[in-house]
Amino acid sequence: MSKEQASPETKGVTVQLLSTMDLGPEIEGMTGRQFRMRLVTIESGGVFGPLHDHVDRPGLVYILQGTITDHRNGVVTDYGPGVGWPEDRDTTHWLENRGAVPAVEISVDIVRKG
Predict the structure, then answer these.
(1) What are the domain boundaries of the chain?
(2) Which residue numbers in the chain have pLDDT < 70?
(3) The pTM is what?
(4) CB atoms within 10 A of CB 5
């Protein structure tokens, strides 16, 4: 595994749950699933790891502040404010903040309850 593919453990990350919605009563076939919105802050030098996938947990991310570096399938991409990315079943990645200011994102996803 190359240095770019190495995935360190999480450090310098704060996650605040903003809201959830039980999808069972809303959409047929979604019993046991929940729509979730979180505010994620990655401090300068912080890492959101380790390497993880989004199989059975699709989501979207939107950057509010700073720059987040996404390490995905051997490709490194920087995302800044006003930009984001999808997290689908083919997503396997980890994130870091290489910048000098905290990076803040809104993350929404569908997860299993509990």
Answers:
(1) 11-112
(2) 1-6
(3) 0.90
(4) 12
State the SS3 of the chain. CCCCCCCCCCEEEEEEEEEEEECCCCCCCCCCEEEEEEEEEEEEEEEEEEEEECCCCCEEEEEEECCEEEEECCEEEEECCCCEEEECCCCEEEEECCCCCCEEEEEEEEEECC
Provide the pLDDT for residue 1.
38
Cα(61)–Cα(100) distance, rounded to whole angstroms?
Answer: 21
CB 47 within 8 A of CB 8: yes
Is 102 in contact with 38 (CB distance < 8 Å)?
no
pLDDT of residue 6: 66
Are 75 and 93 a contacting pair, CB within 8 Å? no
Tokens 């995905």 locate to 72
The CATH class that applies to domain 11-112 reads: mainly beta
